[in-house]
Structures are given as C-alpha cells and as structure tokens.
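Task 17 of the worksheet. Students: predict the tertiary structure of the chain below and write it out as structure tokens. Keep your answer in the requested format; marks are given for formatting as well as content.
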Amino acid sequence: MRRLLLLSLVTSVFVSCSHDFGTYGSQIDPSTLKDKDPNEVTKEDIQANVANIFGAIDPNQDWNLINEGSISIFADAPLSDIAKVQLLTESPFLNSDAKVLNEAAAKYGDMVTLTYDAPNAYDKLYAACVSSSGEYYVQVFTPGTENLKFSTTARARTRAEAYEVPTFTTIKLNKPKYSFNAQRAAAGADLKINNVSYTEWIDSKWNDQMWEIADGQTFDNGWKLDDMKGKYHLYRNINGFEDGELENVQAIVNDCIYKYVKGTSGDKRNNIEAIRNSTIFRTSLNYVTTDGMHPVTLIPIQGYTTEFKRNHIYYYYYRPEDIPAGMSEVDYIKQLPKFKAICFERVQSTDESTAGTFYRRQEFLLPYYKNAPKEGVNEASPIFPEGYKIGFLNRKYSGDNYQSNQAGCTYGDGRLNYEVNHIVGHFKSAMDKSLGGNVKDGMTWTDPRIAIFTANNKTYMTFEEGSDCNFCDMIIEIGSGIKKVEEHYGVDYLSYMMCFEDSPIADYDMNDVVLKFERLSQAEVEVTLLACGAYDELYLRGLNGSKLNESTEIHAMFGVPTQTFVNTDGNTKKEPISEVFSINATRRLSDFIEQIYVYDKTQDRDITLAGQGDDPHAIVVPNNFEYPREKTRISVAYPLFCNWAQNAEKDRDWFKTCVEEYIYKIE
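Model answer:
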C-alpha cells in the first residue's frame, strides 16, 4: 500500500461506524439529530449526509473492487518438476506483495482450468508453474485471457553454447590502472576526497588493479572487439527478446525493483529490503559459480539512469580453496585483478536511459585468464573451468581522479563497500539516516550495491550506482556459463476485508465491524474479526462457527459490553478472533464473502453490501487494508476514495494510498 508516508498493504474486512461524531466524523450538525429516533431519520437526512462526505456518487458505482474470471493453463514451464499451477496478483520474485488467487495440483503437461477473483486495479495477472521445492516460472496475462501456455516464452534461449564462442587462446591486455580504492589506500592518512579527510582506507589492504582488453585483435563466430578507443570489450550482437518474453521481463522487473513509488510523481522507491530478502544475497553474497561448460556472458537489458555513461562493469574470480592460509576472503579479494566487462556508454542512448527502456541486443563475453594478468599477451580461454566464484563491481567515474566524491567502485559483495559508502555526498547519501545518510530505512555500511536474483530460469544482476536504494539503475542478465541459481518462494493467498457502517446517518469511518477473509487452501477459509467500532448491538449473519456465529453479540465476542470501541481508538485493545471455515474447492472466495452481513438489533436492520449507486454501508476491499481510526471517515484516511465514489472507473486502487496518522494499526 502506498501511504502518503509510504505504507504496506494489509488485507482485512471491516464493519465500522461510530455514533459519536467527532472532528473527522461530523458531516452534519449533530444537534439536528439529538432528539431524533434513529428509525425516524429521513431519506433526505441520509442523502444530505452522503453528499456532504462523498459528493455525488456515480449512479453506476457498484462498489465492486473485484473482477471474476477463469483461465485454462497448460502446465509446460521448463522446471525440473511441476507440483502445482497458481494464479497470482503480481510477480513473486523479490516481491512480498504477490498473492495467490487460486491454485491446483498439476504435473508437467496437464491442462488446468482455474477460476479467480482479482482486484480490478490490476490490469495484468500472472500464471505460474511451481516446483515441489517452491521454484517459480511465471507468465503474465491480461484478465479475460482464456488460454495460456508457457512454452512460447520458454523457448527463449538462456545460454550461449560452447560451439558459439570465439576460438582464441590468448588475449592482449592494456597497461593496468590501480583501482580508486587502491589509490586511496596508498594515500593513507593524507587522503582527501573533495577536500574531506577520510580514515576508512588506512590499513584497508586495498591493492587491486583494473585491466582492459587492448585494441588490434580479431575474433570469429560473430564476436568482436568494441571500437571505442580505450573502452574495449568482447561482444556480439544478438536478436533480442523472443515473442512474449519482453512483456514477462518488464512485468517481473517492474514488480520487484521498480524505480519509482507507484502513483507518485517521481518519488524514488526504496528496494533495499527486497534485496536483503533475496536467497542468493543471504547465502552467497551475490556471487555466481562457473559451470565449466559454457562461456560466461552478460546481456544488459536496462540502464535506468542519466549517469549511465560513467558506469563501467568489471568482474573478478577466484576459487575459495586458493585463498592463502591466514588471509581472510575479503582481504584476498582486495588484491585480485579486476577485468573490464561492459562500458555502459556503448549499450544504450540517453533517451532510453530516461525512459527505462528494455532491450536485449548485445552479449558480452568474460574471458578467463589462466595466469596472473600482465600487460601484453596473456594465455586465455573463452570458457571458465568449473567451480570459480565470479563477483562484479561498478567502477563509476567521469575522470580518473580518485579525489572526486563522484568516483568509486561499488560491489555486489557488500563487505567491499565499507570504505566507499563513507564518501560524503553521492555514496553516503544512500545510507540510513541513523548513519548520517539521507534514506529512511537505508543502507548499512556493508550492504550490497549489486544484487542477484533469478526469475524464469534466468539470473539477473541489478545495480544501485549512487545515492538512493532503488537498485534498478542498471539491470544485466547473466546469459550463460554459471550454475543455476534457484530461489524458492512461498506465496500466501490473497485476503479481503469487509467494511460496514451501521447507522443510516453515518460517519463512514468503516470500522464498526472489521472482518478479514483469507483462503488457507482450496478447501479452507480463515475468517478473522478484527474490530468493532460501534455502539449498537450487532450480530454476524452467514457464519455458524463456535467463535464466530449468529447467536453471540459482536462486542461479547471480544468480552466487552456494548458501546465499547474495540481496536479502533487505541483505548480498548483485544486480540483478533479467528476461525477456519470450509469452502468448496471450486467456489470463489468472493461468493463466500458475499453471504456475510451484519444485523443491527438496536435499529432492527440488516447491513449488507452496498447496492449500485447507494452509499457504502458495506464494501469488500482486497489486499491488506488498514482501516480508519475511530471518528476518521474513510475519505480522510484514504484521500482517493471520493474520486472512486464519484467515478467508478477512476482510482480503483484508492486503497493503496492512505494518510498514516488516520489509520488504525493492530499491533
């Protein structure tokens, strides 16, 4: 969920309305109703109150936020095994917002038809094949699609074959340059960067050199040396995306590491938490391991930064068993040679960098040098032996001046970023505010600047080059040559909230009764009573469980007397009450929810889902929705709600944007 202060979504169903009109609950003068029996409130009274709060409700507004659909899925994704197929709201890769709409057991080659309820704010949904270990392969589709198979995009080749490599046995290298880190370490106590003194490089043991391929060499099998003087790389042109592949890549990237906060006018998205949750980051510090059979290649697919001309991608490699006894892995890496892989200036145009354009047109080869590199001719191979760890860094510079605070080498292995992350300005800005940086919940001194994740059998690197934490400045596909990096996910079912207002003259804080519905499996639904912000004597209808039933008054379920606000104003806090109910495996969750309503015994009236053009006394909200605090109407807590009320086609994702101080959070 997008707050005006950036909140996460919470799925729940609410029924809530206070009869105690307060600052944000008063819609009409309370004195006009003080002597009036609630049952004598006129239609004109109600209409005046509704108009004052919401304006003119769209006569076509049916208050429905859910689309129903059905799709037949052919389970033919290229996984080692297939255990089930799922329908998802979003890509599951590095994305905790993804939710399951429906699923069914399946094996390779099965055709499965699934019905679904999906929030109508989503114009794209995902079908997924899932392995028994939780590995995903997804295909994006438009709601309304009747049939889907994975084989079309799965045909996209994932690796360069050994017979396609150039047949060199030697490569000539230019004279190396010491890295910025090595130069800064050599300066020691005298180090100044942009006239600021630093001590982080003293005794840091940086002593590495940066190597580039020399001009004047030719290669076969379509491979060639870049012709930009002093910025040479070994590459070939490739044919781009397969049919349907681009749409998948765009959807996957935009779900997990999109650059801007959705719905804002350019607020940068903080993706560091998603990066920290990546399996590969936790377990191997963003390295890949060579397979010994294919060339290691890199394929840029996006450079979403205006500073792309300053970015130069390097790689290094080693075997853990080669680290000398008594030397730490970090100190060993600080001595290793670093080799140029890509100069991003040669990859794309300025217009593409500002538009976030996706492309796939050049593949860069990473040669393996059999001995310590030297200026001139070196014995080399297009294919690494098996078992080498390869790490990556971005050498960012415009001039070759280590005293510039805009220059630095940033690594996927966060342990190697400690020194550069202290540079005031460009790099330190990405640190957490507690460390003197500019980002709330930002980086630590040893967070990665490059992250690795796998999606649809392809492994990607995603870069954070500078002063924020969105990690989508550059995205590079690792085309081949590495052992498969598997990430395994567990995705929960989508839940829904139901919100009720109990009084004809309502304050519309939508917290009189708050229910959450979450499908636990195809045959089970968990219903949770979260809150009761009403004075009236209220009863649930449509549920006949031991805890949630039609005979127990709702306040009594919480163990409090009537006219007590529970979990709405912070005064009376109670644990939510949950119970599991059975549901037919083929039945939509929305059908189950729609049978639920509230009976108001005080006023002898049923509170049911809002009808078309009516004011909303009961609505269902998808995702994790955080309901308004007591006496705060929903249009104040969720500023886009009125837009949707007045135009059913506008701001259907209003529930993703709230004002944090006006919503209630259950601890």
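Marker's comment: The first strand starts at residue 2 and ends at 3. The CA atoms of residues 260 and 662 lie 24 Å apart.
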